[in-house]
Amino acid sequence: MTVDANLVTEADELARQSQAPKTGFFSTPKRRAAGKPPRLLFLRSSKALWGIGILAFFTLIAIIGPWIAPYDPDAPSQALLQPPSWEHWVGTDHLGRDILSQLIVGTRYVLLVGFVAGIAATVLGIIVGVTSGYLGGAGDETLSALANIFLVIPQLPLIIIIAGQLPAAGGLTVALVIAVTGWAWGARVLRAQTLSLRRRDFVEAARANGERSHRIILFEILPNLTAIIASGFVGTVTFAVLSQITLAFIGVTPVSDWNWGTVLFWAQNNLALQRGAWWWFVPAGLCIALLGMALTLINFGIDEFVNPRLRSTSANARSLKRRRIVPRIGFTPVVRTAHPAAPRTRKEPTA
Amino acid sequence: MKFLLRRSIFYVITAWAAVTINFIIPRLLPGDPVAAIIAKNQGKIPAEAAESLRILFGLDDSLSLWDQYVQYWKLLFQGDLGLSFTFFPTPVADVVAQGLPWTIGLVGISTIIAFTIGTLVGTAIGWRRGTWADSLLPITTFFSTVPYFWLGLIVVAIFSVNLGWFPSSGSYDRGLVPAFDWPFISSVIYYGTLPALTIVLSSISGWILGMRNMMVTVSSEDYVTVAHAKGLSARAVMFGYAARNAVLPQISSFALSLGFIVGGTLIMEMIFSYQGIGYTLYQAVSTHDYPLMQGCFLVITLSVLAANIIADFVYAVLDPRTRQEG
Fold this sequence. Notes:
The complex is a heterodimer of chains A (about 350) and B (about 325).
Chain A: H1 2-7, H2 11-19, H3 46-68, H4 99-135, H5 137-152, H6 155-165, H7 171-182, H8 184-198, H9 201-208, H10 213-221, H11 226-249, H12 260-269, H13 278-306, H14 317-322, E1 332-333, E2 347-348
Antiparallel strand pairs in A: 1-2
Helix pairs in contact in A: 2-8, 3-4, 3-13, 4-5, 4-7, 4-8, 4-11, 5-8, 6-7, 7-11, 8-11, 9-10, 11-12, 11-13, 12-13
Chain B: H1 2-28, H2 33-40, H3 47-57, H4 65-77, H5 92-127, H6 136-145, H7 148-162, H8 182-218, H9 222-229, H10 234-272, H11 277-286, H12 290-318, H13 320-323
Helix pairs in contact in B: 1-12, 5-8, 5-10, 5-11, 5-12, 6-8, 7-8, 7-10, 8-10, 9-10, 10-11, 10-12, 11-12
């Protein structure tokens, strides 16, 4: 849902956002006065930092998972359906298999499929979106109609019928199916932004200089789309992670590959709920929620980086009060610490 | 009415694309699982039904692809989607028709509730940007990143297994005869509360966030400042000027996110064994009932298209710019 709401923006809206000043950062540090632009602005947002931190944690688990897992996730034991204990930190399932090991080993699969699908869908989206936005005319009509068709057709049932009919839907296959069905969001947003960039002066200047189309697209337009591409990528990864876990949960993909959805699949099919085995399905869900939240936070960070009006939590309610700023509609508070002579903060209207 | 005409053409093309995807997929993928099933049930499947299955799944290699395609369309216009193997020998069309009203009711009601509450809350949060109201955002984010089905599991664990307030599965009391009377309707509402609650919980954050961001953007427009300057009450400015304009992208995003919501609802039905089309799809997938899978996909897609058309009409009514010529 979040992904959708963030990306649903009309063409003119996008154009306006991109024109917002990208350097007018909240609480500008003093060293900026020395003429050096602040670096890594994106990381200044605490939301983005948290998101990246959590994602880094899961990536680490994904890399070293099989070595640090305390047990073999497939090895049955005598401890059947045990609640969490010191031997099994998150308990065991109906065959006595260690659930923590299943989660740790499954992380790699989750992230791998998520990122492969995200990269593939983003590349598809860039190709279709930028081409159609830059070309215009009949090519644009055709490509954007194609993207809109894929947007309207419900993705999950489409993924289910494709994956359900494949004889062996392994990890990579699932990732590609998700990418093929999920690229349209990115394409739509990128097309809108390319349309607005196409007539800007710097692009016109490049064209007047006789630069070739592919050079204009690669070196003039694409760098200006970085933030949108990044947020589209993060959104697609979120979608891919949720989709593949859902597929594993309903048993479309082979249940022998461990992933968080597989854990939930076994829990559901062995009546974990009715038996009161909360440890069987709660940790897996929390892992999914945590990963999803990390990705969403990164996306928030990117959004706030692009659109300064959305930067609210870098100035949360308490810090605003401390700085004696009364939040008012229609104004974006800008703190001028660069002028020590004026201790009172001022409110500057944007727009 | 140029807007509506353009949209109608688009929907016709999309419907055609959906049908064509449905036609192509079984032909592209390797193996002929349906042929195996037909061979296994030799003699049990009536000759006519076997014939239509052959057309639907492209088992007849003697025909050219174009002839197969023409025959496929003919079958669709007769409403023939083949025979379901799971509910043998019920035709797929009948199975799907039984499930569809339940899904439409569940998705429709819970989406309207989520949209209304979400938009109102988003308006309030966007209007009070920079106050405590912003701290509501991370909470709703959490609910939106949790997969639908997991939220469903938790809700079942709390409200039906532990507290015993609501039933954990089914869509009405099996002891009742479906009829348009109060005991039956109340039973449907009682059984539908938990699934609807879960859908509302997980989809509401998108509406809140979208509305909040639009409110933040719209509230710095000149006409809002003018309304303030004229001395209108904050309430009148908020609803009459800011929210009224901020809600338009919500409606157009409604159309686009519908497919996503429907996908989530399908999963929800699988958890609650709610007898809608999602549960049917689940049964089809777990029993490898390919005709039923294809039929479910087609009907789901066409229903989403229909809902999109309605959303477009609403948008045209609300936004006068779309009604302008040219």
